[in-house]
Amino acid sequence: MGFLGQRLIAKAGGDGQPGLAAARVVAMRRSVVLAAVLACVVTTPSLAAGDAQAGHRLAQQWCTGCHVVDGAAQGPDTAPSFSSIARRSAGDPGPLRAWLTAPHPPMPNLSLSRQQIDDIVAYIGSLAPR
Ligand code: HEC
């Protein structure tokens, strides 16, 4: 036991430096990744509150199963079309935003991020008649 213990201590001491160096490399990689993520977060708001094109893509991806997402006025009767939602919420996106923020049976809980909500609100807003 004493022998093994001494060996372990010797080994730990011997590995101490390279281990530290490796930890520093990992820490450096982490900060590079962090800087990249921060750069994205800092530059995205320049796209303003919401990006209607991104919202369109999101809607095609997540909402077409039930809603008519494009400008078409009519579609399946399961859920209101986005253009009818746009007509109703024109000028006041507040209720629309609130609707998308909270989970809403029968709609699946989509857990949209705030950016995604902004994008979808911008897209639906772009469908409103002017
Ligand atoms: C599984 C089907 C389904 C999916 C997927 C779905 N919805 Fe819905 N949605 C509905 C139904 C059904 C209603 C009507 C609920 C009601 O009137 O009580 C609705 C209502 C809404 C309303 C409220 C309309 C109003 O009456 O003011 C909005 C806004 C909305 N959906 C947006 C979305 C968006 C954005 C997505 C995609 C991110 C989405 N929905 C995905 C089924 C769905």
Tell me about the biggest sheet? none
- N-to-C order of helices and strands: HHHHH
Mean pLDDT: 75
The helix-and-strand class reads: mainly alpha
CATH class categorisation of the largest domain? Mainly Alpha
What is the C-alpha radius of gyration, as a whole number of Å?
26 Å
What helical percentage do the residues reach?
A: 55-70%
**What separation lies between the terminal Cα atoms?**
84 Å
Shape: elongated
Would you count the extended β strands for me?
0
Q: What ligands can be seen in this structure?
A: heme C
Bin the strand percentage.
under 5%
Number of helices: 5
- Unreliable residue stretches: 40-47
The CATH homologous superfamily of the largest domain corresponds to: Cytochrome c-like domain
The CATH topology annotation of the largest domain reads as Cytochrome Bc1 Complex, Chain D, domain 2
Count of individual domains: 2
The appropriate CATH architecture of the largest domain is: Orthogonal Bundle
Brief overview:
By secondary structure, the chain is an all-alpha fold. The chain has helices at 2-43, 52-62, 82-89, 94-101, 114-127.
Provide a descriptive summary of the structure in words.
The protein is mainly alpha-helical. It has two domains: 2-45; 49-127, Cytochrome c-like domain (Cytochrome Bc1 Complex, Chain D, domain 2), CATH 1.10.760.10. It is 64% helix and 0% strand. The chain has five helices and no strands. The chain has helices spanning 2-43, 52-62, 82-89, 94-101, 114-127. Helix 4 (94-101) crosses helix 5. The longest helix is centred in the N-terminal third of the chain and has 42 residues, at 2-43. The radius of gyration is 26 Å and the shape is elongated. The N and C termini lie far apart (84 Å). Residues 40-47 have low confidence and may be disordered. The structure holds heme C (HEC).
